[in-house]
Protein 1
Amino acid sequence: MTTTKSVSIEADKNVPLVRITRDFASTPAQLFRAHTERGLFAQWAGPDGMDNRIDYWDARTGGSWRYVARRDGQEFAFHGSFHEISPERLVQTFTYEGVPDGVALETLWFEDLGGGRTRLHAQSLVDSFEARDAFLGSGMEVGIEQGYAKLDELLASGDV
Amino acid sequence: MTTTKSVSIEADKNVPLVRITRDFASTPAQLFRAHTERGLFAQWAGPDGMDNRIDYWDARTGGSWRYVARRDGQEFAFHGSFHEISPERLVQTFTYEGVPDGVALETLWFEDLGGGRTRLHAQSLVDSFEARDAFLGSGMEVGIEQGYAKLDELLASGDV
């Protein structure tokens, strides 16, 4: 089985939105679990070498979440709300606490490509092009690429 | 004491955002309570003649809310998450269940004008200009204007 390992990160031309797509060797249900189950999410999110400690995680419509990523004595905390958790899509808010006034509205869905492959679609909406371009210029693609590579391994392990 | 009773509803030129401003004869703390306390919010939100039944309401960072507005046998339900509840601002998600795939990210803050007057600033962000213009064309200004007029009366009553 082969998967396209490259992640696509695309800035929308008209609205302050970033779109991410990435194919995985998994079913939609497995990708859903990897994004909503606390113990699974902690294993793959973020760049290499990060240790994620989940502070709280209530993956239901109306629930909320917070986690702290640690590496080399540095801590990076994130929190948000789960606006919608359904098999069709996940809608959640996202704040990096280093920029406490910033907030993104994220939507994720999982497109079944057949043959045990699924395309993850994620979009992240903010309220200005300045905020969107700061996000794109933050080096976030390293964390996204390395995180998804860890997710590939987790899916291959059979633990999801 | 006089207040400017007119509400300003403005579409941003560059991003799919609506900005609302309205002055009230109140302190910022009173406006904060009117927006976050379940029993107060139910008394003023929405157009005239609506009866609001709060289904759930947990006004803390990470909490969530849902209410059903009823008039003449018709029901309109809304729900969302409270991403941030702080004296500085409220950040919440908003879905009208008649359009279940639609979601807005709302931010509200209260500017102290002095002399017992406060300016409410609200912005509502969606992910396309089509969705924003559908919202603007939905007749929502009637509900906003009538709701704020009810809020004027509630504030004048001394119950907030």
Protein 2
Amino acid sequence: MTDQQQLPPDVIAQLKALDPEIGPQLAQATWALLTPFHEKAGCTAPKIDRDLAYGNDPRHRLDIHTAGDQDQDRQGGRPVLVFVHGGGFVRGDKHTPGSPQYDLVGAWAVRHGYVGVTMTYRLAPQHMWPSGAEDVTRAVGWLKTHIAAYGGDPDKIVLVGNSAGAVHVASFVAGQGGADPTTVKAAAMLSGIYVIRTPEPGTPEHVYYGPNPGPQTSPIPRLLDSPIPLLFSVAERDPFNFQREAARLVSAWQHQHGTVPDLVWVEGHNHMSTIASLTIDEPALGTALARFVDRHTTTEGAA
Amino acid sequence: MTDQQQLPPDVIAQLKALDPEIGPQLAQATWALLTPFHEKAGCTAPKIDRDLAYGNDPRHRLDIHTAGDQDQDRQGGRPVLVFVHGGGFVRGDKHTPGSPQYDLVGAWAVRHGYVGVTMTYRLAPQHMWPSGAEDVTRAVGWLKTHIAAYGGDPDKIVLVGNSAGAVHVASFVAGQGGADPTTVKAAAMLSGIYVIRTPEPGTPEHVYYGPNPGPQTSPIPRLLDSPIPLLFSVAERDPFNFQREAARLVSAWQHQHGTVPDLVWVEGHNHMSTIASLTIDEPALGTALARFVDRHTTTEGAA
């Protein structure tokens, strides 16, 4: 047994029994199971500054989550955890009123001593590749100037992307859309896709990349030469495509570096519940993610 | 930050700076760094029953680690964590007086509410393949009869093998030497080898398997069809061979099952320090290992 906050075994069993295919059914069933735990744990940080504009598009918006303690916040120097949500490149938002999506990530960040940032970005089909990497670049640039006022250290930014958000983070790390990955300290990609193949019509990739994405759209191989530390995760109940991507990533990484990458296998969770496990089921992902953030934002820890 | 016990960043940095090649130098440097933390945390369980004979060979011995609370121990029903040490098939022991090797594993097990068992086994070259799997089988048989007297549930045995011990556990799970893996509830393999190839003279594999090990000596492919849940780990600073094994395992598992296996990437640690991370650096391995044990020994959690 561990003293950390964990989901009860019967809830994990119910999660594991869900059909892993991504869609409204999985989303509804997953959040119905988990929202009560978020509400109990508290999924909002003490202070949230909403809808700050990091660019001119209506989707160029981010929320900043802090401890709300003016003295502490003024002290500064905190790591800045920037969350990039998923939604198949065509939907999703940083915040859905009345739900823990994704204020819970900001609350988790604040609990661990970070400043939390939840950002959104332009969507396909209006905005196609590499708009995601461009928007992450734009948001990071804005944070460099403004995050100190919220207690964050502009030199300790860590990106965390989930699903399509993980693809945008991977795209940023690979330097697509003019991105400079050395402007952040580290990056985590949860249930992402790292090699872009010719997509079937109707798939999210077809909408974002168009029918014939060139090799320059794939985060791999440049992702393998990342100048910053990376963490990846795959959920026990992620669908086949994401499992295959994770296995191929391990293989390509080992081929390139002789080592296995930092890949977290998120026990008991699915494509939707991975990010929802933060705070309410810490051993699933939160423990490893916090250690990753701490390691790469603490000066002592630089090895 | 996390509230769990962790090693200070400067100690992790020192660990990461060590040459990862396995040998007396790595062992000495690693234990010199970590033993003070074990001594501070306490690396002995309240009660240790030593050198119980599970067979006729002088190496057929195990130690049982318990809370030493007669009422609690008599209650019974606890998971039983059985640790199989490493040592290149030719050396190593369950207990080295004056060192935390490997009473620390027993103490960790007791802290988490389990009964801890540390076992040793016959060594090569006197005893070659499949003597390791035979001895694990023998020890499990002995525990089935005797562990209830120590508060353990004979139907909740979980094996944890490290290095050569992981190979013996893999061999047991693959049914070698007459083993029946369904006699245990789950098995964890830390920094193991899963495909046995023609070994170079002078290597540990050459001593244990002989110069021409047949395909029947390889845990894979049968390991992939395990009837019990498995956890694997690889250390960030494991040497090349172990990294390659881990990557190949992921690839073979995904090919067979369509999913990635439960592989823990042990952040900051090396081949020797992975097992030493228990208790003193819980997020590295202990958190995931305890969750694995709990999941597969709790009736509610069976999904």
Protein 3
Amino acid sequence: MSIRIFLTGGTFDKEYNELTGQLFFKDSHLPEMLDLGRCLVAVDIRTLMMIDSLEMTDIDRDLIALHCAEADEQHIIITHGTDTMAHTARLLSQKIKNKTVVLTGAMIPYKFGSSDGLFNLGSAMAFVQTLPQGVYIAMNGRFFDANNVQKNKETGVFEEVE
Amino acid sequence: MSIRIFLTGGTFDKEYNELTGQLFFKDSHLPEMLDLGRCLVAVDIRTLMMIDSLEMTDIDRDLIALHCAEADEQHIIITHGTDTMAHTARLLSQKIKNKTVVLTGAMIPYKFGSSDGLFNLGSAMAFVQTLPQGVYIAMNGRFFDANNVQKNKETGVFEEVE
Amino acid sequence: MSIRIFLTGGTFDKEYNELTGQLFFKDSHLPEMLDLGRCLVAVDIRTLMMIDSLEMTDIDRDLIALHCAEADEQHIIITHGTDTMAHTARLLSQKIKNKTVVLTGAMIPYKFGSSDGLFNLGSAMAFVQTLPQGVYIAMNGRFFDANNVQKNKETGVFEEVE
Amino acid sequence: MSIRIFLTGGTFDKEYNELTGQLFFKDSHLPEMLDLGRCLVAVDIRTLMMIDSLEMTDIDRDLIALHCAEADEQHIIITHGTDTMAHTARLLSQKIKNKTVVLTGAMIPYKFGSSDGLFNLGSAMAFVQTLPQGVYIAMNGRFFDANNVQKNKETGVFEEVE
């Protein structure tokens, strides 16, 4: 089984600029994280964008959907900022019917040492291999159907809508 | 869904004794790792033993099987040293038929900072929720059926027997 | 020898707010860092403020000077943001003549895992025990006299003025 | 000021072999640690040996002394296992009279993430620039004269002999 990984940015890949004290994007840490996890699943990683998900437009989401539709792989992981992850998942679920797509992210940047990112990536890698066709969010060790998930803005936790 | 986690030791939980320079077991880091991963799946953690898997006897394995059989949960994760993980999985698969059991471990102790453990725990947590009844090993982002898996002693990698 | 440590904030002690994605101050990590370094020098730690040094006013600096003057200890370390550290050091050097005062900080928050803070704290702890009376900055493994030091804004490095 | 650093091994540079579960030496982490500390002091690093200090012989110590005597630099740091560090320091102090030599080490390997090594290296770097000629041990934020120091085997802490 081969898995396509699309990178879009989000907290996952943020870094600290020591001159300005601001957070910014440089390169993705996905390859380094897969090495650390000694992951031996065949993957093909593509960076589609590298942005904060609050800045993601529906044009960006169409681009993501297009790449999902055209990928040869049947199993796709998308790294994504958590703020609008549920919105992107919902749009994708309308367009991608015959593949398993798992969106995941992180609350703490991987570079900050105490990140949830590696745990989330491990769970996304497993969910994408085992869940039936559809679009899902993998966070907090759980998976959610794209049509029944929201991020609780107060707690930062993903939950079913009802 | 509630998940039972049985701890048996292994590299996962080894620590460095700074007075003797030896590795040893103290407390498990599982709760800390689940916190780090912001895992919100309901879990019940029990320590059955805290040993190097090279020292595990078949009496120990019977004890593990007994706990798996008697657990209320249908979904069980077992942390285990990698050296004899395949052997334990095979024995369990003969005794536990109606539950999903996932064994996982680590090549590098969690306390050593650059461990694969958090990634493996994330994938085990996902596999145990989605795989059908049976006994499995989750390592390197992959899952293996208990009756067709071995650890390659030269590379340290888990692989199918044939 | 007993050493007084005054905390004023700075990058040293910044944390990442996972709900807002902003950096903020909570508690100081100094005690944890001294534990990690297995530091056995007698210290007395006091938090005077917990701010970004760009927001520090000369009233704040007068307060720091007052505490330095009134401290029983002859050896004082001050943790401080790097942006205005040289300015504070210069003001202190005019008021504190009979003690050894060492200011130090970090370019990367300690909580981010790959911080220079622990190295800087180790060097500050050593310099404060061995340098003659005066006010100094300890950064990058070096020490600078308070009256001949500036932060190079482009490189982020402390250097002599001429 | 230029500083010579001699590496001899010790816990500082131990790594974990994930196939055997044993600790071993590969390359030194000193350059990486100095980068992490953003150290800008001019240094020249030489590896003399890479061994556990319990295996160090007096022939090894003569070699270290010879290198200290012949170095162009007046300021020398030696990384060394803690078990026989006091013994080596005493021998060096008989032979090296006109330079400042500071031995330091670590209780936890640097690669294990929660090491005291970076703190100790920061303090050694500062002590070697400021202490008068002589041979010293820098551990736990303190410095000790080579002729009045021992490692307390029960606590792992360096202390004056009386």
Protein 4
Amino acid sequence: MAISTPQNAHPTSITTYLYDATSCEAVDGLASGAPGQFRWIDVCGLKDDVRIADLATDLGLSGLSVAELFHLDQRAQTDVDGDLVLTVLRMPVSSQPFVADQISLVLGPDFVLTLREQPRDCLDAVRKRLAGGKGRIRSSSGYLFYAICDAIIDSYFPVLEAQGDLIEAMEERILRDPEDGAMRDTHQIKRDLSILRHAIWPMREALAALQRDDMPQISDPLLPYLRDCSDHAFQLLDMVEVFRETAQGLVELQLSSLSNRMNAHMKVLTMIATIFIPMTFIAGVYGMNFDRASPYNLPELGWRFGYLFALALMAAAAATMLFFFWRLGWIFGRSDEDRRGSGSATDPSRH
Amino acid sequence: MAISTPQNAHPTSITTYLYDATSCEAVDGLASGAPGQFRWIDVCGLKDDVRIADLATDLGLSGLSVAELFHLDQRAQTDVDGDLVLTVLRMPVSSQPFVADQISLVLGPDFVLTLREQPRDCLDAVRKRLAGGKGRIRSSSGYLFYAICDAIIDSYFPVLEAQGDLIEAMEERILRDPEDGAMRDTHQIKRDLSILRHAIWPMREALAALQRDDMPQISDPLLPYLRDCSDHAFQLLDMVEVFRETAQGLVELQLSSLSNRMNAHMKVLTMIATIFIPMTFIAGVYGMNFDRASPYNLPELGWRFGYLFALALMAAAAATMLFFFWRLGWIFGRSDEDRRGSGSATDPSRH
Amino acid sequence: MAISTPQNAHPTSITTYLYDATSCEAVDGLASGAPGQFRWIDVCGLKDDVRIADLATDLGLSGLSVAELFHLDQRAQTDVDGDLVLTVLRMPVSSQPFVADQISLVLGPDFVLTLREQPRDCLDAVRKRLAGGKGRIRSSSGYLFYAICDAIIDSYFPVLEAQGDLIEAMEERILRDPEDGAMRDTHQIKRDLSILRHAIWPMREALAALQRDDMPQISDPLLPYLRDCSDHAFQLLDMVEVFRETAQGLVELQLSSLSNRMNAHMKVLTMIATIFIPMTFIAGVYGMNFDRASPYNLPELGWRFGYLFALALMAAAAATMLFFFWRLGWIFGRSDEDRRGSGSATDPSRH
Amino acid sequence: MAISTPQNAHPTSITTYLYDATSCEAVDGLASGAPGQFRWIDVCGLKDDVRIADLATDLGLSGLSVAELFHLDQRAQTDVDGDLVLTVLRMPVSSQPFVADQISLVLGPDFVLTLREQPRDCLDAVRKRLAGGKGRIRSSSGYLFYAICDAIIDSYFPVLEAQGDLIEAMEERILRDPEDGAMRDTHQIKRDLSILRHAIWPMREALAALQRDDMPQISDPLLPYLRDCSDHAFQLLDMVEVFRETAQGLVELQLSSLSNRMNAHMKVLTMIATIFIPMTFIAGVYGMNFDRASPYNLPELGWRFGYLFALALMAAAAATMLFFFWRLGWIFGRSDEDRRGSGSATDPSRH
Amino acid sequence: MAISTPQNAHPTSITTYLYDATSCEAVDGLASGAPGQFRWIDVCGLKDDVRIADLATDLGLSGLSVAELFHLDQRAQTDVDGDLVLTVLRMPVSSQPFVADQISLVLGPDFVLTLREQPRDCLDAVRKRLAGGKGRIRSSSGYLFYAICDAIIDSYFPVLEAQGDLIEAMEERILRDPEDGAMRDTHQIKRDLSILRHAIWPMREALAALQRDDMPQISDPLLPYLRDCSDHAFQLLDMVEVFRETAQGLVELQLSSLSNRMNAHMKVLTMIATIFIPMTFIAGVYGMNFDRASPYNLPELGWRFGYLFALALMAAAAATMLFFFWRLGWIFGRSDEDRRGSGSATDPSRH
């Protein structure tokens, strides 16, 4: 498998951290440490592919593994290559939209190699702890390897919390105004969560592979730490699942909010229209021009209280409609028990 | 891994229960028992981190385990640390919204350590049984460890029953009035159930881990008890699943209730409007002012029974509409069989 | 674990069936058989807890198992307790709503103990077969144990068939009248199926546990029979799954039926309203009272055939609308092919 | 377990096919072959239960297996009974509605027994190949057993293809006219697919059981053939899954088609009504009968061009509405970009 | 199993590539290489079935495997046949609609046989690499076998990317105009993704089967390469899952867009209708023809400012409606907080 350097790769820059229990020194470029010292070779930018390939080959990577270092769209995974362990992870660099960069880690007996294409990363806290030298971080290459994995996994928590906040805000927004373009944003959240899930899942597998029995490159004291890191990945997946279910609930919330809203419109229209339509009809009847010479034609028009009669007729029509709406429970909060008892007999809308 | 004490931690208070088959004594602060006595060291509040860390280290916990005691957002899990077993569980403290506190348990050959941040807990029944001394609770540290796990798991049952009651009430409410804000509450129930499920699931795993073959710290006579406790966790998960499915059904119930409600509005509007619209049109026609000098202009207006003719025309229009609605089965409960037989030929709405 | 007798427990009654290959005798109360005889001790009602606990202890049950006998809300399960096998199952006693009673079975070398709280059970057929003595039922305690399990599992088939009939009836009902309260009943069916599924699933596991290799209490010749019983449980689960999917389909059927129904209402309203609205407008125009002294004001009113002209105008408006509806394919079944070819150019509702 | 012959069972008819590598002879009734000959005993109809039970017992089946032969509603499964293998499968006999008959196969060292209740089956092709003698079909009883299984599995392909055609036709129908009763048919398809899936799944398991290591009755050379048969079952399940997902899509397609259709109705109603309502109002105003003696009462009625003024007013109202609809993008295909830029400021329906 | 050549099979053409580390030669027809040379026998078109069967038998395939070569609708799978490995894969040849051709690969110690029915394939890059001789491709038959599998798997990436672009375009389209026929296209995308998933899934299994321990035909150095190929299949499945979830989201997006759109129509209709209906009613009242001889009949008509009074009445009715809509928050963006505080008391549509 030939090396295929990505187009427009960033210029390669290498920083070597030489450390042992008592000291830690950051050197620009590649450097060999004193015996007993561990090295973290931190490579960023894949442009100088020959230099990187040489370095990787010197460290003991096989041709296939070297070629894989240059593939930037790999699934998170752990491979064993002789004495070395090659783990590919993805670290989030942006939350909305969710973007994650690939980072390759190679663990050797006395070194850790990290390789990424973009200058940005989430490892500054690890660098500080290495410089500060507190805790066990300087005790072996394996522990540094764990610390880097842990920092990457933990960098997903803020991303998920941002998604959680977004979901909460969306819920408010949907309940306030379901017509407000929330659909597109909910769809976007769901897609981001779907991508997040498929990003974290293989990382969990890659971490689990590190803890299997057939992995002599990982020393036993490291196992509880890696297990802790796996637990964090599980926790991330739990969160993603809860968020996915909540986001799916948002879609249903929106559909029923829209339906509710439409119901409100419909009820207003129905009530106004059905109250006025019969009244307007009555007005229309007494606006007809039949020849009143015939005593049978519109005699009401000649009545002394004809107008009041017409108005009373209209009022009666409106009252009938209002009574009808009250029977249906649409107005004045008629209790449900009443409706159940009598509704079926008198309610034409229930047939 | 350094210890990171939570901000605003509660002040640390320690109670030691010294017990053996014949006696049980609760002592404020840390205490050592006589030989043959078991100890339950019940720590509450993480503020005094140095004291807690010293205590934990004295009991034999490794640095990583000690650090984990101070992480309050861990996934439920069981870890082995030398002779000790470290189990992290969550106990519910509020049902709506669902809130659960973390509690860490450490089982040693002759002690149980429990550690929680909040003063509230669900272990008073265990304390009473320990004081009362009935049954096997004073027989070993393992049995006390089981009793605490069991009390924690069992404290989920009231939470789930409250959710069940809520779902039942919501169902009534949706059927009575689907527009009533039930959407938000249903959404909330679904989210709580989703969180509950992801809280109980890892506890089931943590309990299962205690029963595995490679766990010499758990004595064989304890296994049936732990299995019983696991069964309760399974039962909780069964309940959560049934509730989740029922809550999902509530969403569908609501959507179809809203749809049903809108149908009712629409039918009323359609019937009133379509009955009166033709009648109003007829009234409008006879309200036109065409010059009746021409015999072809509105001759009906001059008829002796013109008004009655117009009223009859209106009645006929209304009757036609009513007949039509009866054909469609909207009114007077026309039987379905009739409709099927003849509907397709005469029913314009079925095209 | 202390014994907690359920409140309001039924009075305890014990029946002992003493049987061997040649005879079977039912004795009220507890009885010991002759050597070589098997016993079925059938206990009903948990009130006399001391007597039951003594009996169970005499038969060889441990304290935990004895305590479990008194828990009436256990998950179906199989536990091994020394020489004995303790299986908890649930037998259905009502189909709508679905209710199931717990029954505990203890299998010993020469006895079967069954324990239930309610007098009702589904084991009369087993009692008859035992009295009749046909087949292998009297050959061992294990075979009787299997026969009881089988009778319990098989008593779920009528329950599921009732659910199936209900689903079929519901389907008819929804298609006939989707507004008819079918929602609530469909929701109820779905919940019952969800509960049924979570009742049968652990019984399948309990039966599977009986067939595992590490179960010397179950003799090899019994295994094919238990496998047959497991197959029935699988068949039940298959049925439940098919019913669950069908019931979910009912919800969708209902939503689309309601939508369909509303479409029909809407189409009627739209057609009647849009046909008459322009006609009524024309009538309104010729009902205006402009001073006809000016020759420009409503000259049509003075025309000899003005009325006919107005009626023709109205007819033309109605015809235009009808043509328009025919173009849209709403009336007179205009073929789809025509609509596709020309619709986009002339159909304003398709933008 | 006693034999329970199904009610109204078909009369029993037995055909024996005696075959070896060089010859094949079909004999009515039961027959014994020469040494070295294989037998296919093809039993149809369960009425003569004693004869069948005797035959099965002679062939070496145990009592439980013999009893199982008479149960016609078994789940597909494979059981081992001494030297014999008993496999129960279901063969489809009708596609819509989907109906499948049970067929029991018993494989012995030198015979295959098939047993079914209905005369119809799907094995004519196997009979022809056996008569023709091409290929390996006469080489052993195992190969014939495989050939029968394969014929049964393959007879599901036409059933699934019919379902696939139905789904395709339904899709066309829904898009052409979603109100057309397609709901019921889609629901029926989904149910048939659900039943098909639960019919094929246990057959896959039954075939897998034949390939397990602990099955000495199946000779090694037969394994690739059975694996091929299993692959077909997998392929069937893949097809069922694709169809199920497509059918679920049909439901959604229908709901959105109905919604789309209703939108079209609504838009027509809204446009016609909102254009004419203001015009009709203007006509109504000038139809009022105020006493024109007062110069403030309806002076427009006396204007020389009052009628034209009123018509112009109406035209302006209609034009306003049309402009408004054009702004909303409902007519004349106003581009989306325009709408976005200006819509929010002037569009009252977007609040 | 007899060979069944597909109808209308393409004419058979065979190309043999003879290669070793230093040379590669493509020969028309079948050719034997020098010792130490590897062969890729590339067969296309199944018409000449006898020639293909002879070739396959010569290479060592069993009868069943030879017969399988002629089945063009197989599930992707890996079978072992003596020294040979037979893998069936499917390579995509069209993206919309998705179409995939079957390709059979046989790996022998010194040859690879590929067999396909259609002339088109996706292996030109492999041919070029073989001709160019760079990398390890000429080092063994196994490596070539891997290279072909890898090329086939990788040819799915452009297909999936096309689906991804389609989904993105569909999303834009639905948000712009949900009534636009997007339903059918979304349904089509979902079906294609469903088919894609069921095409890739068995390929993943076929590749996994190649890496199992019991596969001596695959040399150890090949394993990391095959693992890499498997990883790509996993990545494809991840992509398909994300796309499937997104496509499902599109359906919901569409339903809520349609609902939103209908809401907009409904609101316009409701507002225009409810504003004008009372105004038109007032005009109708003053258009009545009561005999004004009676002082009680329509006295307003005789008022000096009667017309202005009527207009004021109309304006008041319209203002009331507008105020009411403002209360409901339908116009002028009344803030949600106001509505909540006062809405329930005065808002009749909220009952």
